[in-house]
């Protein structure tokens, strides 16, 4: 019996790592730019399609795709900021939400046009490969997704702490006018933040393709989970988002076991979300 | 209270009242392109009235009170389920069911508002609560056997329906009911806009803290606004259930519907009386036209078949281009919706109607 729970916790941690990477992208964009990105999950969906078609048509392994997608989606994020998001920075949240909602709608419908509403999934030689860990089965591609996601979160953290650009980004997150006063190019920082955030979420999509299907409609679910994680960890808080991602992954996985139907696992997550919003809107580690 | 009606709206109303009389005529069939006369023309106008009504419902909390809800699909779905269950299990006329749906959806809205506003949730956090709430309602409906779970509810078919069964053989009765609902919502909202309650909402939208400071009961006004808004959306749910005769959680209580409800209001002009109406009259025809022009419903074959064929890469690419040329997987109407929404947000942030008014005013001056 205990094995079942160990299994659930392990699987939860694995997928939670991916949630963490998705949420880190969202929280970086929010922290630096104060933008709420409702189209976040759609970038994940396009990352997944890039990997799926790369694999089916060109035979590129998804893990190679991840390396390619990192700079490509950074550029896409950069361009999205330059073309769209730039115009609503500093405007009201409602305007920003409506703009990114429009972007999300457009991207979903574009994916339906380009890739059809069919579900696509990869069947790779290692898709079902597992190993045994004291009675629980661990899937190799899930472990890989977890490790790559954690490595990227750590890399981003080091980048923010150690490099000049990273420090400038953190300065923007703290104080917009102050950073402007000391000569930081805010618009450039915003482009970098949006690029990094989009690169994170796209790679999270790519590393899921060996074990997760893709369809034009997968985005909003991930956007909402990312919001749950980000609120739980405190808006703009990157270590909080990583921790929140792991927690949500485990809760979801345990709920799938305990709820009357496995698909009700999200119910637990959304109810928790509403409760956190009500009682601790600053997140579990946020300052009140 | 004097009701001044702009002559453009008066002429429009007379045309709309007369439309069913000529929709089936040979003249209409001759003028309109590819089968857009008769019942398909009626269907498009029913959709316009319906989305105008839903947009107007959303407008009360989302526009006038400035609380961006992306969760009206939940109230809409609750309304559709309440009247349908009452009819299927107790044989209660959907007309009475519509009243019950309005009341129940208003209670649900008030409950959500009480919890949210009591804990001071505002701005983007309120939006997130409405999104999460919709998902919670959808998951409950999906797993509740009594309401049909994932299969939804099929309303019993009546061969010779009576008025009380809210079922009709032709489209004209639905047309006039939807038109009446739209007109009723316009009257209600134009009354709100000029009432004390309306001024409260306006003050909350402009600056909630300032409104609170000058004595506006902000929390109570917001709860009343969301209850009224949710109640109307619930009535819309009953209409939708009776019109389509079939409701299923994944078609009703889903983010896409919440977005379609607010789309018309935001594009036409959130927080204005006629904005949601103008928005629906822009959006639905644009969507239907793009469906007529571009979409043959995935006639280019299946993408999966192309992917799995033995053809070489170049050949697959050629097949793929052919597939896109034939309309791809569809969705072009929604791409237009999204692009229009982004353009309105960037170019005319208040919506089309306030933008037009400014244009006319500056042209006159």
Largest interface: A-B, 53 and 51 residues
Q: What's the average pLDDT of chain A?
A: 90
Oligomeric assembly: heterodimer
Computed Rg of chain B: 22 Å
Major sheet details of chain B: 2 strands, antiparallel
How would you state the average pLDDT of chain B, rounded? Answer: 89
Shape of chain B: globular
Contiguous low-pLDDT stretches of chain B (5 residues minimum) are none
What string gives the helices and strands of chain B in order? HHHHHHEHHHHEHHHHHHH
Spatial strand sequence of the major β-sheet of chain A: 1-2
Q: Biggest sheet of chain A, open or closed, and with what strands and sense?
A: 2 strands, antiparallel
Can you walk me through this structure?
- The complex is a heterodimer of chains A (288) and B (365).
- Chain A is mainly alpha-helical and 288 residues long.
- Chain A has one domain (22-106, 137-279).
- Chain A is 73% helix and 3% strand.
- Chain A has 11 helices and 2 strands, in the order ααααββααααααα.
- Chain A has helices at 2-33, 40-58, 62-83, 93-115, 140-162, 164-174, 176-181, 186-208, 219-233, 238-258, 265-279, and strands spanning 130-133, 136-139.
- A two-stranded antiparallel sheet of chain A has the order 1-2.
- In chain A, a hairpin with a 2-residue loop joins strand 1 (130-133) and strand 2 (136-139).
- Chain A starts with a helix and ends in a 9-residue tail after the last helix.
- With 365 residues, chain B is mainly α.
- Chain B has one domain (7-272).
- Helix content of chain B is 73%, strand content 1%.
- Chain B is built from 17 helices and 2 strands.
- Chain B has helices at 7-23, 26-31, 38-64, 72-90, 94-118, 124-143, 172-194, 196-206, 208-213, 218-244, 249-252, 255-268, 275-294, 303-308, 313-325, 332-347, 352-364; strands at residues 153-154, 246-247.
- Chain B has a two-stranded antiparallel sheet.
- The longest helix of chain B has 27 residues, at 38-64.
- Chains A and B meet through helix 2, helix 4, helix 9 and helix 11 of A and helix 6, helix 12, helix 14, helix 15 and helix 16 of B.
């Amino acid at each position: 019996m205990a094995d079942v729970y160990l299994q659930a916790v392990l699987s939860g941690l694995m997928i939670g790592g991916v949630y963490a990477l998705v949420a880190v992208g969202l929280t970086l964009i929010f922290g630096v730019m104060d933008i709420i990105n409702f189209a976040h999950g759609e970038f994940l969906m396009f990352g997944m399609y890039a990997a799926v078609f790369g694999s089916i048509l060109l035979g590129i392994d998804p893990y190679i795709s991840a390396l390619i997608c990192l700079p490509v989606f950074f550029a896409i994020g950069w361009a999205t900021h330059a073309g769209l998001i730039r115009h609503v920075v500093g405007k009201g949240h409602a305007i920003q939400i409506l703009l990114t909602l429009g972007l999300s709608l457009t991207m979903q419908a574009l994916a339906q046009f380009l890739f059809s509403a069919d579900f696509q999934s990869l069947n790779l030689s290692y898709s079902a490969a597992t190993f045994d860990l004291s009675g629980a089965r661990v899937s190799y591609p899930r472990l890989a997704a977890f490790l790559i996601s954690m490595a990227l979160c750590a890399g981003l953290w080091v980048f923010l702490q150690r490099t000049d650009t990273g420090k400038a980004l953190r300065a923007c997150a703290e104080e917009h006018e102050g950073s402007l006063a000391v000569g930081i190019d805010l618009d450039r920082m915003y482009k970098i933040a949006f690029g990094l955030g989009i690169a994170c979420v796209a790679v999270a999509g790519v590393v899921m393709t060996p074990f997760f299907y893709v369809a034009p409609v997968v985005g909003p679910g991930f956007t909402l989970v990312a919001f749950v994680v980000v609120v739980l960890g405190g808006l703009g808080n990157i270590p909080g988002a990583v921790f929140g991602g792991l927690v949500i992954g485990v809760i979801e996985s345990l709920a799938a076991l305990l709820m009357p139907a496995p698909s009700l696992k999200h119910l637990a997550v959304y109810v928790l979300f509403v409760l956190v919003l009500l009682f601790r809107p600053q997140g579990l580690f946020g300052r009140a | 209270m004097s009701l001044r009606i702009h002559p453009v709206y008066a002429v429009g109303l007379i045309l709309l009242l007369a439309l069913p009389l000529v929709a089936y005529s040979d003249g209409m069939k001759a003028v309109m392109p590819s089968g857009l006369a008769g019942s398909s023309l009626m269907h498009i106008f029913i959709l316009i009235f319906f989305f105008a009504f839903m947009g107007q419902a959303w407008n009360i909390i989302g526009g006038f009170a400035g609380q961006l809800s992306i969760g009206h699909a939940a109230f809409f779905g609750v309304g559709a389920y309440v009247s349908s269950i009452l009819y299927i299990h107790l044989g209660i006329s959907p007309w009475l069911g519509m009243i019950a749906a309005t009341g129940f959806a208003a209670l649900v809205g008030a409950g959500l508002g009480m919890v949210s506003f009591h804990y001071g949730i505002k701005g983007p956090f309120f939006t997130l609560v409405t999104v999460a709430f919709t998902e919670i309602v959808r998951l409950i409906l999906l797993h509740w056997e009594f309401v049909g779970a994932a299969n939804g509810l099929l309303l019993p078919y009546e061969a010779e329906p009576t008025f009380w069964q809210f079922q009709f053989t032709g489209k004209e009765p639905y047309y006039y009911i939807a038109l009446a609902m739209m007109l009723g919502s316009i009257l209600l909202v134009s009354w709100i806009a000029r009432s004390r309650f309306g001024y409260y909402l306006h003050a909350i939208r402009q600056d909630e803290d300032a409104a609170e400071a000058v004595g506006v009961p902000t929390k109570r006004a917001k709860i009343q606004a969301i209850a009224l808004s949710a109640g109307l959306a619930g009535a819309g749910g009953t209409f939708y259930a009776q019109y389509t005769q079939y409701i299923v959680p994944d078609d009703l209580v889903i983010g896409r519907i919440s977005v379609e409800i607010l789309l018309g209001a935001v594009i036409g002009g959130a927080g204005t009386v006629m904005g949601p109406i103008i928005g629906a009259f822009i959006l639905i025809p644009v969507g239907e036209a793009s469906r007529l022009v571009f979409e043959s419903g995935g006639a280019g074959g299946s993408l999966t078949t192309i992917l799995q064929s033995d053809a070489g890469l170049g050949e697959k690419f050629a097949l793929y281009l052919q597939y896109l040329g034939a309309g791809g997987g569809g969705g072009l109407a929604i791409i237009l919706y999204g692009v229009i929404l982004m353009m309105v947000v960037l170019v005319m942030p208040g919506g089309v109607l306030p933008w037009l008014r400014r244009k006319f005013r500056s042209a006159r001056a």
